[in-house]
Amino acid sequence: MANYLVFAFYFQAFGIFTVLCSVEPNIVYEWETVDLVWPNSSVKEEYIQSKKFIPENNAINGIKMYKDNIYLTIPKLKDGVPFSLVKIQNDASKNPLLIPYPNWDIQLEGDCSKMRLIQSMEIDPYTGYMWIIDTSFVPRAGINIADQCPSKIIIWDLENDVEIHRHTFPVNVTGPGMFYLNDIVLDFNSNKTARWAYISDTLGHRLIVYDRELDISYAFSHPSMKPVQEYASITIGNVTNAYSPLGINGIAMSSDLKNVYYCPLAGVGLYRIPTALLRKSSSNNTDFGREVIHVGNKMVQSDGIYYGKKHNLYYSTLGPRSVYQWSMTPISDNVKPGRQTEIAKDDRIEWIDSFAFDESGYLWFVSNNLNTHFSNDTIKGSSNFFVWKLFVDDSSYLKFSDDTSSAPSYSLDVFVCMFILLCSFNFW
């Protein structure tokens, strides 16, 4: 009888253990080159002939989910990218057409009020508001002054397809000089209202804060946000490329809303900073330096990172082509986080850019071969862009309202101990 009581006690945790060990990532969508839903064939032909649409130059990057829709970004980092934000709506095909979102007009070339260069977005599940960061243009030599629109954040109501609010970043926040708004996480008031957005500026090496209630923005700089020369080169397959200018990139919010985690692309260090400091516009870089903590080092360089409700941090490995889970169970400053565990590996997982969660315990992510995309070395006749899902029995940090303070998080060591214990009772 005692054997069965022990078995019952550990059954749930052991079940989670087997899930993490046996699961494989599934390809939901894949494309050699993406295509769009066009008004008609004449419009498509005109875009192709005028080189406003060059299919192979369109690389999907960001991914977020809301109800039955999957939202993707295609940042305008090359010529021939007409739309920066698209969606997939209830499409079971393997390589679906992408629908420009919110509409055609707001993304057409024109004045600075248009959506111009979108890398990432986040969706508030309580309101259906999408927070969209728009870098507007890639700073580079020879760009027309007319194209140097200021960067901005747009809040869009997905339920009613209407803009709620926008904020234009002042030049002392994004600029002057190089900047690129890369990723975004949301922070909430005690009444579950999204108030703050934290944004990584990969080229400006800054962490930007937007306070919606006060409609102000400000930025922090710290050496931890800069690229580390030792890790500036990344080898994927047999090709090595240098990414020396790329600083703070991945950014994640803890599910208790107490800490923001971030890491540079050219680097392996993971850092965290309390939201209590970020929320105060009176905080300065000196304050930031006193509060920032080096959590530890990832296995290798990564791009996007994401935080789950169960206090797990998920990140990709750009060289080994895999996904890792790192336990971040609420810890004191003197306690190291849990073990980093490889939970998925596939040779087709080449350059994971971003993550998202659905409502069923699946972690979704985009891989886009960016390392070969920018060198024009993508392989013709094979898939280059993928949307994956991986069962991890977790959910987004945005589910913080569901008693996340007590949500359990188990490291691999715990599962191994459980496994050995069960074996000792001769259950099989």
From TrEMBL:
It comes from the Eukaryota. GO terms for cellular component: extracellular region. Residues 1-21 form the signal peptide. Keywords: Secreted, Signal. Its main location: secreted. It is found in: Secreted. Pfam families: MRJP. PANTHER family: PROTEIN YELLOW-LIKE PROTEIN, PROTEIN YELLOW-RELATED. Belongs to the major royal jelly protein family. This is Uncharacterized protein. It comes from Mytilus edulis (Blue mussel).
